[in-house]
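note to self: dont lose this again. the chain is below, predicted strucutre after it. 260 aa total, dont forget to put it in the shared folder this time
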Amino acid sequence: MSTCPTTTTTRLLLLLLYACVRLPSLADSLVAQPMQCAMPVARGRGWVRRTRLAAGGETSDDLLERAAALREEAAEAERQIVSQSEGQQGDAGPIVAAVAPKRWTELAGSAWKCRMTLEGFKEERKDVRAVDVVCEIALMPVEEDGRGQVRVQGDNKFITKGFVWSVGLGLDDNSEDDAVYLRLNVRGEGLEPTVPDGSLYLNAKLTRDEKDGAIVLSDGLVTFKRPQKARFLFAVYDGLLAEFKVVGNVVMEPIPVLPE
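---
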């Protein structure tokens, strides 16, 4: 009849534990317990006194033999446990397996971690410090107008709200770049003086992995829609026209979608 590996391992562990507990007590018995009685034993011409312990009726020689036997059993049990552990680990593979990153083949319903480095407007960068901002976003399904909602996952001090996302050629509608880009915008707060409070536009080039068709977002830029300055006489003010200014870069990595 075959024996369950788990039961065998348990018995071996109990035997090892028993040996570890029992051996010191046996040694203490040999040293600490007083001799209770003596029994003469004839050997050759004389008499030899063999000590017996009243508790178990065993001689000191018997106890030493039992201790040696227990020690050997404990060592054998340890060897078997190590051997079984190595065999089980070899069959099952590594105990901790690397978790493969999430991959998306469609933008609608996907989620991304956005690592932004905001450096401010080009003409002002020497006077401000760069700021690193991380947020997680989920791209909702596309609606009739060809755009989808952007949902910010979790609480974020600097990125407080998501707006819309879409796909188009170039960084914006006025771009001459023929590459396909993901465009989305979120609201940034508390990032002054690097960038004002307002919409941050994230743009990333969209390509696909040749092996599995997974979406890859690269060459990410962060822009801010800033009104163009206008002059009238000696006054300078924000005009009616605005243009997108690059204020930083962004790296976008695929992540799982979190429940709302």
